[in-house]
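FORM 12-B: Structure-to-Sequence Request
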């Protein structure tokens, strides 16, 4: 076997001999040396890369040299090209003969216009004699490089365009046939290598179409009538995946975009007839991409061709119903990308319908890959031209939910939840000012969201716990109806939707609904005051207010109905919502309604909170604060007084004496109410009728003190007494008319009792630091406390007792606490625990002493 080095040497040697013969005008000898070099290209066993290298070397060293000589000799009449052309036809081997004929024919075309057509026909016919794939492709490649460029010269302008196009088309068709045949040459084991070879030389095929485009120039009518039909026919006829894909792409690339816009229907129709193994989505995507790149200068938009693509999709579904989803979904996505924009999403519903019918109407296999494609399609992640932001998602969810909803229902439970969660999250977490203007948009959002609340098994998707409440809040915030009735209707619709969909979400969503109902109550009252002169109008909105409170009561009842016995958070939330609603009704002088909600709060407190593992003191104080703010209940029926007494009774039901004592002392505030602004149907006014009952205050404090004194734990007992002392000082400060019966004698007795308790604590001190504490509270620098009492019997660290002592205000004990670094603890050493009431008592005494300088009444208090 001859080596590559030897072949290259032989070609170069023949090139030298050609140049030497032509230098001496020995044309026939030069032709013989060219033919000898060309014989190397006859071999079928040369690897393709080497074959191309030898072809290039022969062209450079032999054929190009001969061509240049013939061109110059023709100008000086040294040779007769007609005679040379005839002599070459007697060359023994067909392949060298054809190469030489093409070389001479190129020169003949330039110098003999009368023979051009005949020469071209003769060359086209003779090249059919070489049918070996490699040899035939490179022979036609030689024609493309030598004959076709002549068509673009001035001399060939007069030649019929149809003839030039036909010549190139014939060369392309033959070249394409040989290119396809190459794959099936030789043994089966060589098939993979032949496929690679086809990839390497495919540019030769594309070159034919590029030259055709150059010759055709801008003659779009010629392209539509003669060129494209033949190209489409060749695409369909060859039935080869690689050829169809590459040639289609070359057609789209080499011809102007204006040609494709005029023939887009023909191109799309051709894709329906291609090999079914070819990815149609890739072809159409390339078509869309090519048109998009060059469409700007035509002052049109691809969206204008929506109907063409829509008809194409329907035709595709009819002709290829078995088209796999891996091909159909990307195709659908690409076409949808040009059919919609951020402002116009109306026609997107048709694409959802088409995909739904395909999934529903045929036995399409859906695997992991298809599920991934469906997921990306339904969250619009592959849309390139459309900006998929929260506005786009919002319009999709509110205007095209019919088929989109049906498509979602076909997805697996997990994928379904991820899709809806992604879209809804983008919408509800948006900073954009999205507006809901109609109830139909609300219904669409609720319909889509309902998929997250249940599935075929009646379970809800986990992501719904976070998303659904946000969706409801988003609806309330974005709904701009302009009328009270519409807002009322939407609120009730959402309430019923949650109740009918999944009871597990009542606790999470109903607070938002209740808040919306509160807003509507306020709107009613504003309207009622605005039109107070119209009795019928006022009565109508007064009735509406009462109806709203009934709905609130039902909502709270539903929350308690679904809340479990151990669901402390839900029960506490319902309890506080009852109190807030009662306070709201009181503001508008709706006494009966306010009383009813307070009673329901009391029932909840007595049945589910008292004697259970709740923070009973805190919840009872919330009730006390709510009651204390009311003023409309203080009427002839003594509603307020009855509720206050019931509050004291409930405080007395607490299990531990220390909690009873704290709760009862807090109840004393119920009989010492200040001015609160209230709203009635006719005006806003301040209620100056205070509810003050000093006798009741004294009873509460005395009962609380007795309970504190009976607590066995001296530390806890002294702590409660100190709290009572602080409350007494508050009444002493604010009671200018001595209405509370809390005078200096009572305070002196209480201080004396506390001093005795503190003294007993000092006896318990076991360390030197605490044993030397003086009763007047003077502490040395080394006697510094580290803790104060916190919420829930916890202890909070403080930096320095001296810093706290520097405050003149008893109620500013936390002034010097680093709130960002608070770490409450439940357990302390006995010494630290004892020191807490001692240091607190010290601060109170200092406060009393400081008040004596500005308030003479404090001089009667003995410390």
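FORM 12-B RESPONSE
SEQUENCE OUT:
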């Amino acid at each position: 076997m001859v080596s590559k080095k030897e072949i290259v040497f032989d070609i170069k040697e023949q090139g030298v001999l050609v140049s030497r013969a032509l230098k001496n005008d020995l044309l026939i000898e030069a032709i013989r040396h060219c033919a000898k070099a060309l014989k190397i290209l006859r071999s079928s066993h040369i690897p393709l890369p080497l074959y191309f290298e030898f072809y290039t070397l022969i062209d450079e060293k032999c054929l190009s040299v001969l061509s240049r000589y013939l061109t110059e000799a023709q100008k000086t009449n040294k040779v007769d090209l007609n005679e040379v052309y005839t002599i070459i036809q007697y060359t023994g081997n067909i392949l060298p003969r054809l190469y030489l004929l093409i070389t001479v024919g190129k020169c003949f075309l330039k110098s003999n216009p009368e023979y051009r057509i005949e020469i071209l026909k003769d060359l086209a016919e003779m090249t059919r004699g070489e049918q070996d794939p490699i040899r035939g492709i490179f022979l036609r490649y030689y024609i493309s490089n030598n004959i076709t460029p002549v068509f673009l010269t001035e001399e060939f302008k007069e030649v019929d365009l149809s003839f030039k196009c036909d010549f190139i088309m014939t060369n392309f068709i033959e070249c394409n046939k040989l290119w396809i045949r190459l794959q099936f040459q030789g043994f089966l084991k060589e098939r993979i290598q032949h496929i690679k070879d086809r990839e390497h030389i495919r540019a030769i095929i594309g070159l034919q179409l590029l030259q055709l485009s150059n010759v055709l120039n801008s003659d779009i009518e010629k392209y539509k009538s003669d060129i494209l039909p033949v190209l489409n026919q060749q695409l369909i006829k060859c039935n080869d995946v690689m050829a169809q894909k590459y040639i289609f792409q070359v057609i789209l690339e080499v011809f102007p975009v204006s040609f494709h816009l005029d023939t887009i229907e023909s191109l799309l129709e051709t894709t329906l007839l291609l090999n079914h193994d070819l990815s149609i989505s890739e072809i159409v995507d390339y078509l869309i991409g090519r048109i998009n790149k060059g469409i700007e200068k035509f002052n049109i938009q691809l969206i204008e061709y929506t109907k063409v693509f829509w008809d194409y999709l329907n035709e595709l579904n009819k002709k290829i119903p078995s088209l796999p989803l891996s091909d159909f979904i990307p195709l659908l996505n690409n076409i949808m990308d040009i059919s919609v924009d951020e402002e116009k999403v109306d026609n997107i519903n048709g694409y959802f319908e088409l995909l739904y019918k395909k999934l529903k109407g045929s036995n399409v296999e859906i695997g992991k890959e298809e599920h991934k494609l469906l997921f990306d399609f339904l969250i619009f992640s592959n849309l390139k031209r459309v900006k998929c932001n929260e506005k786009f998602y919002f319009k999709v969810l509110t205007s095209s939910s019919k088929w989109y909803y049906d498509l979602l229902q076909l997805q697996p439970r997990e994928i379904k939840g991820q899709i809806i969660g992604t879209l809804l999250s983008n919408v509800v977490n948006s900073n954009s000012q999205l507006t809901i203007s109609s109830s139909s948009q609300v219904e669409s959002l609720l319909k889509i969201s309902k998929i997250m609340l249940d599935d075929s098994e009646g379970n809800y998707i986990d992501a719904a716990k976070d998303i659904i409440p946000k969706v409801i809040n988003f609806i309330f915030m974005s709904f701009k109806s302009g009328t009270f009735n519409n807002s009322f209707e939407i609120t009730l619709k959402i309430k019923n939707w949650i109740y009918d969909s999944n009871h597990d979400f009542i606790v999470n969503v109903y607070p938002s609904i209740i808040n919306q109902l509160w807003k509507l109550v306020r709107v009613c009252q504003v309207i009622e005051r605005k039109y107070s002169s119209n009795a019928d109008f006022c009565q109508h909105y007064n009735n509406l207010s009462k109806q709203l409170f009934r709905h609130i009561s039902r909502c709270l009842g539903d929350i308690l109905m679904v809340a479990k016995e151990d669901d402390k958070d839900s029960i506490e939330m319902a309890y506080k919502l009852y109190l807030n609603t009662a306070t709201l009704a009181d503001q508008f002088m709706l006494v009966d309604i306010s009383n009813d909600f307070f009673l329901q709060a009391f029932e909840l407190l007595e049945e589910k909170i008292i004697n259970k593992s709740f923070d009973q003191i805190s919840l009872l104080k919330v009730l006390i604060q709510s009651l204390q703010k009311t003023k409309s209940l203080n009427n002839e029926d003594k509603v307020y007084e009855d509720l206050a007494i019931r509050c004291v009774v409930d405080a007395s039901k607490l299990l531990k004496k220390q909690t009873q004592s704290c709760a009862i002392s807090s109840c004393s505030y119920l009989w010492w109410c200040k001015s609160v602004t209230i709203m009635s149907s006719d005006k806003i006014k301040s209620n100056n009728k205070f509810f003050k009952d000093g006798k009741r205050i004294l009873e509460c404090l005395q009962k609380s003190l007795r309970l504190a004194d009976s607590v066995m734990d001296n530390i806890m007992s002294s702590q409660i007494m100190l709290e009572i002392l602080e409350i007494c000082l508050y009444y002493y400060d604010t009671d200018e008319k001595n209405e509370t019966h809390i005078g200096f004698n009572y305070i002196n007795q209480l201080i004396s009792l506390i001093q005795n308790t503190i003294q007993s604590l000092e006896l318990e001190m076991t360390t030197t630091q605490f044993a030397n504490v003086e009763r007047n509270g003077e502490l040395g620098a080394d006697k510094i406390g580290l803790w104060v009492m916190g919420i829930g019997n916890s202890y909070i660290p403080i930096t320095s007792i001296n810093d706290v002592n520097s405050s003149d205000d008893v109620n500013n004990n936390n002034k010097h606490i680093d709130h960002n670094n608070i770490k409450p603890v439940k357990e302390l050493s006995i010494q630290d625990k004892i020191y807490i009431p001692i240091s607190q008592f010290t601060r109170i005494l200092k406060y009393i002493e400081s008040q004596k300088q500005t308030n003479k009444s404090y001089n009667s208090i003995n410390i």
